[in-house]
Amino acid sequence: MTETRKDGAIARAAASNTGVATCCFVVAALCYCGQFGMFLILPLVIVTPWLVLNLIQAARYPAQRRARLIRCVMWIVTLSALIGWHDYRAQKREALASDTARRVEAFRSAHERYPTIEDLGWSRQTAWRAGILYLYDPKDAENPQPLLGYVSEWDPFDRYFYRFDTRTWEFHAD
Fold first, then answer.
1. The pLDDT value given to residue 6
2. Which residue has better confidence, 57 or 33?
3. pTM for this entry
């Protein structure tokens, strides 16, 4: 009889951890996409009280401690990895945009005109995939400066635009 109880407890713990692992995977799949870091707020709001409750339950019931701590670690690792991933992408995109601004300024100094996207060695599609927006039409007399910007990693509606006259980045919320 003891073996049957033990086997049942192991099966329940495995099923519970499988459910948590599945939820972690679904959250990771949904929040992994670029520019959707803001959607991490929902799992954080839901999981934080759940983590606190599970940690309290782990402290109160030693028999369940290991299973509960494993579930907590799964969520902590998942959310930490997602936050780290979005932060990495944000830093990478910001560095690429700043480098592009420097390249545009260097080209302008050398040739006394702003470069087209092709002069920078990119196509529009390549720049768009990298998250960089660069628009310049040398024939447009109303807009003598190019438009350089990038999308925020944390919110798909926020943009940063470079002002070539002041050489600064401006934030534009949705």
1. 57
2. 57
3. 0.76
Identify the CA nearest to 102 among candidates 162, 143, 171, 150. 162
Q: What is the pLDDT of residues 63-78, one digit of tens each?
A: 888 888 988 999 999 8
DSSP per-residue letters across 39-76: GGHHHHHHHHHHHHHHHHHHHH-GGGHHHHHHHHHHHH
Mean pLDDT of the chain: 83
Count how many Cα atoms sit within 13 Å of the Cα of residue 91 in the half-sphere of its side chain.
6
How far is residue 9's CA from residue 33's CA, in Å, rounded to a whole number?
37
37: nearest Cα among 160, 151, 155 = 155
The pair of structure tokens assigned to 94 is 């910001």
| 164 token code pair | 């070539």
Q: Single out the residue of 43, 107, 112, 105 nearest to residue 75, CA to CA.
A: 43
Residue 128 CB partners (closer than 8 Å, separation 6+): none
Is there a contact between 113 and 81 (Cβ–Cβ < 8 Å)?
no
167 Rama sector, left if φ>0, alpha if ψ -120 to 50, beta otherwise: left
